[in-house]
């Protein structure tokens, strides 16, 4: 079993920066892939950024060059650094982790960027 707890969501002004955190506990060594998702109001949850155990990252086009996913293996935590925030970045942000047998989610943290 793996548990994920996000934190860092806030009300932000456009153009601002925010860093979300996801603390992992449980069977951490079984995780091979971590990611951040966003669910905007009235929309489906979408993948924003992912990172593999060996550090390879991928981003969806809408957040490339603005968001950065990173991790600290020793501390069992990974982050999403968000810069140049836009109103369309508003939503609930979820961290996600894959093991061979299961897919785990955090409870979500709210980010609001008013227009």
Notable features of this structure?
six-stranded antiparallel β-sheet; mainly beta; 115 residues; four-stranded antiparallel β-sheet
Structure report:
The chain has 115 residues and is mostly beta strands. 0% of the residues lie in helices and 51% in strands. The strands form 2 sheets. Strands 3, 4, 5, 8, 9 and 10 form a 6-stranded antiparallel β-sheet that branches. A 4-stranded antiparallel β-sheet has the order 1-2-7-6, with no helix packed on it. The mean pLDDT is 95.
Provide a compact summary of the structure:
By secondary structure, the chain is an all-beta fold.
Strand and helix layout:
Blueprint: E1 2-7, E2 18-26, E3 33-39, E4 45-52, E5 57-59, E6 67-72, E7 77-82, E8 91-98, E9 103-105, E10 109-111
Antiparallel strand pairs: 1-2, 2-7, 3-4, 3-8, 4-5, 6-7, 8-9, 8-10
């Amino acid at each position: 079993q793996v548990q994920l707890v996000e934190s860092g969501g806030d009300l932000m002004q456009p153009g601002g920066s925010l860093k979300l955190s996801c603390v992992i506990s449980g069977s951490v060594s079984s995780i091979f892939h971590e990611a951040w998702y966003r669910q905007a109001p009235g929309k489906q949850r979408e993948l924003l950024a992912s990172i593999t155990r060996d550090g390879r990252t991928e981003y969806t086009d809408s957040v490339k060059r603005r968001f950065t996913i990173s991790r600290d293996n020793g501390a069992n935590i990974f982050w999403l650094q968000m810069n140049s925030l836009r109103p369309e970045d508003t939503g609930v942000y979820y961290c996600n982790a894959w093991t061979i047998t299961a897919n785990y989610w955090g409870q979500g943290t709210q980010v609001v960027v008013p227009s």
